[in-house]
């Protein structure tokens, strides 16, 4: 059973919110999501997006957008909560309970969401984690393990369904790698509990994610508009990606146990010369459903030479008529479409970096989703 989220006193550190001011020093609390603590100012200056104002109109017939007055009414260029990581759980389902944290039929989703909640054992006031269910299938396993995609690290991990295994997975893959260099007044115990334990990755079978991964919000029991738009966008992306030369994959990635703590991505050849795979999945609620359809595009680091390699781009207000333009302008061309842009995330940190000429655009106050969701 997964009822005991705070599974082992030695495995986790639980700090009630009312004690944060005593445990976490002011220098730590001042670090904001908009200034990722683990990214140097130099790397922030180096990362820029090439923006285009609008999405190109379709050149061939596409599916019709539902006649709903809510479509496109809210600007996509709004602030988004910045997340340290995204865990995309592979449920194999197309619908979920309205709140996956309360779903009695899905103990893994309940454990993961509650573990990072404000009362959970892995709650950290500095870093947020987005826990989302998806329609992706898990890797078949004799012990009943489930699978998780992790972004923006682009990893896919098999996780046994025991509370202690899930806790060790979180500590090995999801906690932050470093304490910010400017923070020096943490106790050794707190600093240790906040840091990732990379040696634990050897206990799990995992692989790098080398395929284009597209997540589309479509949660019928949560938001009707998303459940209507989501399948239309999924079909449109399947069609347009195949036209662009991508091979769609329904199978999960192959996983294995690794002796090394990091497995390098294959960046030896230009992405255009490689066989290109894409996975498309429907997800539970990602946030901002008044800007449906919400589409998150993860372009892997192995897409060597691609301007957005290793980056996730979150678009809102996406309609079927936009899909061809998104494929050609963003997925193929590497441009970010300003009118649809909600945020971005990358291994560089959770803040989308605007070019100087776009930095002062009114209403474009965006925090990605490593942000992305």
From TrEMBL:
Superkingdom of this protein's organism: Eukaryota
Matching Pfam families: Suc_Fer-like (PF06999)
InterPro entries (UniProt xref): Aim32/Apd1-like, Thioredoxin-like_sf
Ranges in coiled-coil conformation: none
Family to which this protein belongs: Belongs to the AIM32 family.
Name of this protein: Altered inheritance of mitochondria protein 32
Organism annotation: Trichodelitschia bisporula
């Amino acid at each position: 059973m997964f009822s005991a989220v705070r599974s082992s006193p030695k495995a986790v550190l639980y700090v009630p919110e009312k004690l944060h001011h005593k445990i976490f020093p002011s220098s730590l609390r001042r670090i904001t999501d908009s200034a990722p603590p683990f990214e140097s100012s130099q790397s922030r200056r180096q990362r820029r997006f090439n923006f285009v104002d609008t999405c190109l109109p379709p050149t061939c017939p596409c599916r019709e957008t539902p006649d709903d007055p809510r479509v496109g009414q809210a600007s996509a260029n709004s602030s988004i909560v910045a997340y340290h990581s995204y865990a995309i759980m592979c449920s194999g389902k197309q619908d979920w309970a309205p709140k996956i944290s309360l779903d009695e039929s899905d103990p893994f989703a309940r454990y993961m969401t509650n573990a990072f909640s404000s009362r959970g054992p892995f709650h950290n006031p500095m870093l947020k984690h987005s826990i989302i269910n998806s329609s992706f299938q898990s890797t078949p396993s004799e012990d009943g393990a489930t699978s998780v995609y992790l972004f923006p690290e682009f990893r896919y991990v098999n996780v046994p369904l025991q509370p202690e295994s899930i806790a060790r997975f979180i500590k090995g893959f999801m906690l932050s790698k470093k304490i910010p260099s400017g923070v020096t007044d943490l106790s050794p115990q707190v600093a240790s509990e906040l840091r990732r334990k990379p040696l634990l990755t050897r206990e799990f079978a995992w692989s790098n994610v080398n395929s284009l991964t597209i997540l589309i919000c479509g949660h019928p029991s949560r938001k009707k508009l998303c459940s209507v738009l989501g399948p239309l966008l999924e079909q449109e992306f399947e069609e347009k990606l195949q036209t662009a030369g991508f091979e769609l994959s329904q199978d999960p990635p192959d996983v294995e146990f690794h002796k090394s703590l990091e497995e390098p991505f294959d960046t030896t050849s230009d992405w255009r010369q490689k066989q290109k795979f894409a996975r498309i999945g429907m997800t539970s609620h990602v946030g901002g459903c008044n800007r449906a359809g919400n589409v998150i595009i993860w372009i892997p680091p192995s897409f060597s030479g691609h301007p957005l390699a290793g980056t996730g781009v979150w678009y809102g207000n996406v309609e079927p008529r936009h899909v061809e333009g998104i494929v050609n302008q963003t997925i193929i061309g590497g441009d970010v479409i300003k009118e649809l842009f909600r945020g971005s995330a990358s291994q560089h940190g959770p803040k989308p970096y605007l070019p100087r000429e776009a930095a002062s655009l009114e209403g474009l106050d965006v925090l990605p989703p490593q942000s992305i969701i």
